[in-house]
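Worked example 2:
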Amino acid sequence: ETIDSCCSEDLVTVLEMKVEKKPFKVTDRLRLYRKGIMAATLKELLEKAREKFAIEEWMEVYLVLEEDGTEVDDEEYFQTIEGNTMLMLLLKDDIWSPEGPPYTMREITLDEIQV
């Protein structure tokens, strides 16, 4: 038996497995707008959020949990997030804040950051 023949069925099975899309609520960095977005992967959610909020592709963005600022930066963690979770789309230099717009690195000094 060759490697191709023994693995081809397994490959088809893996390719046929589809990750279910889940609903997410995403707010913009200023908390002015909220969008409902269906996505199966972190990459898909980031792409759709960029599109909905008209953020250019060259601008670096990332997602955090809106309630506490936890960064969502890997697929494995993303898959554990429940549907309808509120996320916040931030720009690269933004730092999540509990209310209002995010802080930016230019606005704060290191002594102001409380850990």
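The chain has a mean pLDDT of 85. The chain has three helices and seven strands.
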